[in-house]
Design brief:
Blueprint lengths: L5 E2 L2 E4 L3 H9 L6 E4 L8 H4 L4 E2 L10 H11 L6 H20 L28 E2 L5 H14 L4 E4 L2 E8 L5 E8 L4 E6 L2 E4 L20 H8 L20
Parallel strand pairs: 1-9, 2-3, 2-10, 3-6
Antiparallel strand pairs: 4-5, 7-8, 8-9
Helix pairs in contact: 1-5, 3-4
Length: 244
């Protein structure tokens, strides 16, 4: 019987900002499969409005130390300090990459130097939030999708619901099984590297503003494969809707 499995160097599950950003930053010599439950970009990333916090070199009063302090204070001391430092210190480079990929962050009006319109949101002591109007997520995802689609080394498997990781006896992950929602057939993806960028599980709650795709598939697959799951109490409930 012929081997019908699909073989790749890297499999990425999820097509939000995380999955797309990984795809555009991997070496173009890698053969990549991007597997997503519905269509590219569907999910919470597209719906994000506010912006991205990063220290700007234009603001001499701001600093990495200040951003770290603000973040830890806003997190009521529950943050992993090393993770906070890593994210804060790499924030400016991420913003630069997104600009390079075509994200149009808003600029201040009537300023000849065309400075970015940095805003100051809850928890921040300085203006450091880059935004693209009020549709930052849409701008980011749209730009990243354009970049990914232009890459010949990436194959897209839309409308594929990931079911389970393939775990070898020695604990190695060698791929995953996914359901083709159109044909109702199970497909086998083989790879030494599988990246789970599937988002959260907010849709597990009856009343929520999370998208229908946020059902925790990746978390469940990782758990069944033996990964340690922590901080499950931290679900995002974005307060921009009213339940009457």
């Amino acid at each position: 019987m012929a081997d019908t499995s699909l073989k790749y160097d890297v499999i990425i599950v999820g097509s939000g900002v995380a999955g797309l950003n990984i795809a555009v930053n991997l070496d173009p010599s890698f053969k990549i499969a991007l597997v997503t439950k519905t269509k590219l970009g569907d999910g919470a990333s597209w719906l994000a409005q506010g912006g991205i916090a990063a220290v700007s070199s234009k603001n001499e009063d701001d600093s990495f130390a200040s951003h770290v302090e603000d973040t830890i204070n806003a997190g009521a001391g529950l943050c992993n300090t090393e993770v906070v430092k890593y994210c804060v210190e790499n924030g400016p480079d991420v913003v630069s990459d997104l600009v390079k990929f075509g994200v149009d962050f808003s600029h201040r009006e009537f300023i000849e130097t065309a400075e970015y319109d940095l805003t100051k949101e809850g928890g921040h002591s300085h203006r450091r939030v880059y935004h693209s109007g009020d549709i930052t997520g849409e701008s980011m995802v749209g730009s990243l999708i354009s970049q990914v689609r232009a890459r010949e080394n990436v194959s897209f498997y839309e409308d594929h619901t990931s079911i389970n990781l393939i775990r070898e006896e020695d604990g190695r992950i060698s791929g995953l099984y996914a359901l083709d929602n159109s044909s109702k057939q199970i497909r086998t993806f083989i790879s030494k590297i599988v990246v789970l960028a599937t988002g959260g599980a907010g849709k597990a709650y009856l009343y929520t503003s999370n998208p229908d795709t946020a059902t925790g598939d990746g978390i469940a697959m990782a758990y069944r494969a033996g990964a340690a799951i922590s901080n499950m109490e931290f679900f995002q409930f974005h307060p921009t809707c009213l339940y009457h």
